[in-house]
Design brief:
Layout (H helix, E strand, L loop, with lengths): L4 E3 L13 H15 L15 E4 L9 E6 L14 E9 L25 E4 L2 E6 L3 H5 L7 E10 L9 E2 L7 E4 L7 E5 L4 E4 L4 E8 L4 E6 L2 E7 L2 E7 L4 E11 L2 E11 L15 E6 L2 E7 L6 E5 L13 E2 L5 E6 L7 E8 L3 E3 L7 E2 L27 E5 L22 E4 L1 H4 L5 H5 L2 H6 L4 E4 L3 E3 L9 E7 L6 H13 L3 E6 L6
Parallel strand pairs: 11-17, 27-28, 28-31
Antiparallel strand pairs: 1-31, 2-3, 3-6, 4-7, 5-6, 7-8, 7-9, 10-12, 12-15, 13-14, 13-16, 16-17, 18-19, 19-22, 20-23, 21-22, 23-24, 23-26, 25-26, 29-30
Length: 506
Amino acid sequence: MLFHLLCYFCISHFRIAFEFKQLLIMYNIFTKVILWAFTSLAFITNLAAQVTTVPQFPSENDEVEIIFDATQGNQGLLNYTGTVYAHTGVLTDSSTAPSNWRYVKTNWGQNTSATQLERLGPNLYKLVITGNIRVYYGVPDNEQILKMAFVFRSENKEGDKYREGKTEAGGDIFVDVYPAGLFVRFDVPASNALLVAPAEQIAIEASSNLADSLFLYQNNNLIFKTAGKTLNTNVFAESTGKHHLWVKAKQGESEVIDSIYYFVLNHTPIAELPAGIKDGINYINDSTVTLSLYAPYKDNAFIIGDFNHWEYDTSGFMQRTPDQTHFWKTITHLTPGKEYIFQYLIDGSIRIGDPYAEKVSDPWNDKFIPEETYPGLLPYPVEKTQGIATVLQTNQSDYSWQIADFDRPQKKDLVIYELLVRDFIAKHDYTTLIDTLGYLKRLGINAIELMPVNEFEGNLSWGYNPNYYFAPDKYYGPKDDLKRFIDACHAQGIAVIIDMVLNHSF
C-alpha cells in the first residue's frame, strides 16, 4: 500500500495518532496554503471579465449573446485553437442547489451546433442563446428561470479529460436572468468585498437597464450622481475598518440599489499568544473560542464565517504574534452547542479551513452523503465562500466510553483484518459496521486495521489522499459513531489500528 504508517494503538479515547499534530502541521501548512489559494479577494463576483452578455441584463424573453473570455477564470482553455462547446443548463426556482442544473442542453461531451461557440478572436468566443432563454433551454412556463449555468470545454479530450473553462476557483459559471423591472449593479470592482490601503483610490463603474439617474453613496453619504444608465468615478478609501458603497438607480418614482463594501487595512495588530493556547480551535467556554493559525510571515489574516456573515470585519481581524509566525483571535457570544462553518482568509486571497478541525464542510462532496449516514449535516455556504471550510462547535457532549481499560494484544499475537468501510458494507457507515463484529470475531481476528478514515478528497477513496488529518470523513458517519465502533470493538476484544498516510496530502 503506497505508504503505510500503521499507528498501533487502540484509540481508547479517540486518540487517532493526533499526537503527531505539530509534526503534521509544520510539514503540511505550506502545502495547504498553496493548494487552497484563490486569487479573488471575495467569492461573490460579477464575472464581468470572464463572461459578458448582450443585452447586459438578459431576461427570459431575450435572445442572448454569451461572450466568453478564455484568458479569465481558471484559464483552462487559454490559447486553445480547437472548437469550443458549452455544457449548459439553467437554475430555476425548482433547483435544490447550485449543482442542480435543469434542462441541460446535452450530455457531457456531446457536441451539437446549438452549443458550439463562435471564435471571435484569440481566446474570445460567442455563444448565441437563440430565440429566447426559455425556448432555447425548453423551460416550462411554470418555472422561474434564475440563472444560466455554463462550463465551456474543448471539442475532444486531451488525454483522458476535456479542457474546461470555469471560474477561477474551478466552479461552474452562472449568469443571472433578470425578471421584468428596474435593476442596477456594480460592474467595477468585480468583487463585492475589497481589502484596501488607507486613501487608496477605488475605481467604480455601475450600470442599470432602465435608470434615468444613478446615485453613489459612501456610508450613507451621497458622493456622486449622474444622469443616464451608467456611472463611472473614483472614490478614496476612508479610515481603518469597514465601509459600505451603495449605488441607487432611479426611474421616475421607482428605485433599486446594489451594494459592496471595502475594509481599510492600516496595520495588523501585534499581540502575544495567550497562555495555554494551542494551534487550532481552543474552546474557552460555552460561548467563546480562541483560534490560532500557524502562518509565518503572512501580512494579515481574517476569520470569516457564519458568525460574521462571511465578511471582512474587525470582529474577525486576527492579531499577529511578535515573532510573525501565528495569527490568533478570540470569538465571543457564540450560541452554545451550535455549529459554525468558518475559514481563514490570509492576505486577502488564501482561503483555508483550520488544519486541526474535527469536521469540515465540503462544497463538492457533502451533497452526496445520505441523511441516514450523517443526520443533520450542515449545507455548505455556497454563495458566501469557496473551497473546503471547517466547523467549530462549543458545548459538545463528551462521548461516554464503555470500555475504559482495554488490554490490547501484543504485536506478536496480532491477527489483523484490513477493512475499507465503503467496500466491506454497502451502507458505508460505522453503525452498520458494528453489526458485523460478530462475524469478524468468528474469523479469529483480534485487530481491525481501518484504511484511512480521516477526511480525504472525494467520498469513494481508499483514503490515501487526506486533506484534514484530525477530521473523520463524514461519508462513514459522525465522529461519535466512530467512537462507538471502537468501543464496540474493544468490548469484543478487538483492537483498532488506523492506517495513516502523510506523504501525499491533497
